[in-house]
Design goal:
This protein has 10 helices and 10 strands. By secondary structure, it is α/β, with parallel strands linked by helices. The chain has a single domain, classed as Rossmann fold. Helix 7 packs parallel to helix 8. The chain is globular, with a radius of gyration of 17 Å.
Length: about 240
Amino acid sequence: MADNGVLEVRDLHSFYGAAHVLHGVTLNVRRGEVVGLLGRNGMGKTTLIRSIMGLSPPMVREGKVTWNGEDMTALKPHDIAQRKIAIVPQGRRLYSSLSVTEHLTMLKNARSKEGWTVDKIFGLFPRLAERRHHRGNQLSGGERGMLAVGRALMIDPELILMDEPSEGLAPVMVQHLEAIVASLKQMNIGVLLVEQNLYSALEVADRVYILETGRIVHEGTSAELQKTPDVLMRYLGVH
């Protein structure tokens, strides 16, 4: 029987044209667990997120991505989203011509009373309620980050892939984001968190993987990683 609520990536090899970017990546994320994916720039973190979501490029040539035991490797992104997997993409990817409310209702009827609603998102992010009629290009960096997370929640996800959600945020907004990620965990939503902000990731993640030139080179709990300064220095350049 499939283990309910588990993302499993097994021996994944992804390519951009002839460039072999991911070399046999294996990891897993359970519902209600926050897993950090760390690594320097250009190590393949965003490629892994795109590969899981079925976005092309890259091209997955070997390996498997499963959710609840179902092979998703060949599925299209919208089919993967229908399995309650959402993405907060790097750079937010908002639409300059759509309002805050329109972003939140583009994937779900605003009148739906089941799961996440626009009102619930506004309760989580009061600033978005104040800016509900503003368009994507009229929002601050922090507001854009809130909206990207809110949009992902509107599909009532069981798993969210977050690619650099703290990028460009002021420290106070990073703390707010950490609180949101912690609350998602309490709601039994799994989170795969790609993050350049090491200390923010370690604050919220239960477990972490480190990616180096397309390979997983370290796996363990956040607490264990904090106690291994040689690993931090070798793969992340911090001590």
